[in-house]
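Milestone 3.1: sequence recovery, worked example.
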């Protein structure tokens, strides 16, 4: 799951990025509001963590601009502004959640997972496709009730398909789910990971839609 972290404090940002990556997130980190708005407007992220006191452009302005553009990426405001009026203003401006610093990383990770589930219409904590089950909190996959060992890329790919069941995903979209900035992506990387998933889980789990992308049928999830 790829998220954007917008935080100008180097120590806090570094700690949040490292901690969220330990929880299985792919994290890109920006330090100002203009960069945050540009990256979130790209549609490459499943969620964003947005500080309000950002340089160059305040986080509240970023939030309002994105929502006016009808960009619906789930956004969690993480800020020191703890007044009730500030919380109300942030939520009314389009924030999906609002946390006050300092925060617990376990809670932040859980809230991000919940935001992404809701954004994809997935009310259950665990995601299923027939006899395949994935638990984002435990970072675990089962086949017929037995644990299956997947690489990080294979896990992230399966997670993306389960969140988007019934929707064709292009190679570019899948690469956005799997890779942070600065990662060189081999031309056949997605095909290789999908081949591994089919072999480890079910050959028919993921369909190839020729010339378009790949699909996990909605009826399976």
């Amino acid at each position: 799951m790829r998220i954007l972290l917008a935080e100008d404090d180097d120590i806090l940002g570094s700690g949040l990025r490292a901690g969220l990556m330990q929880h299985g997130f792919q994290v890109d980190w920006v330090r100002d509001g203009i960069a945050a708005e540009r990256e979130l407007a790209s549609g490459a992220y499943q969620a964003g963590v947005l500080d309000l006191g950002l340089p160059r452009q305040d986080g509240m302005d970023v939030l309002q601009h994105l929502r006016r553009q009808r960009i619906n990426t789930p956004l969690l405001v993480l800020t020191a502004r703890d007044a009730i009026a500030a919380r109300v203003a942030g939520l009314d401006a389009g924030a999906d959640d609002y946390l006050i610093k300092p925060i617990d990383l376990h809670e932040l990770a859980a809230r991000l997972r919940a935001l992404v589930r809701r954004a994809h219409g997935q009310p259950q904590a665990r995601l299923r496709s027939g006899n395949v089950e994935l638990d984002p909190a435990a970072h675990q996959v089962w086949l017929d009730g037995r644990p299956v060992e997947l690489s990080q890329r294979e896990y992230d790919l399966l997670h993306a398909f389960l969140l988007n069941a019934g929707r064709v995903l292009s190679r570019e979209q899948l690469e956005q789910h799997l890779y942070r900035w600065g990662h060189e992506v081999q031309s056949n990387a997605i095909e290789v990971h999908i081949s591994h998933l089919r072999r480890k889980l079910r050959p028919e789990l993921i369909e190839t839609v020729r010339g378009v992308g790949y699909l996990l049928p909605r009826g399976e999830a």
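The first strand starts at residue 2 and ends at 6. The helical segments are 10-22, 33-41, 59-68, 84-92, 105-119, 152-163, 171-178, 189-200.
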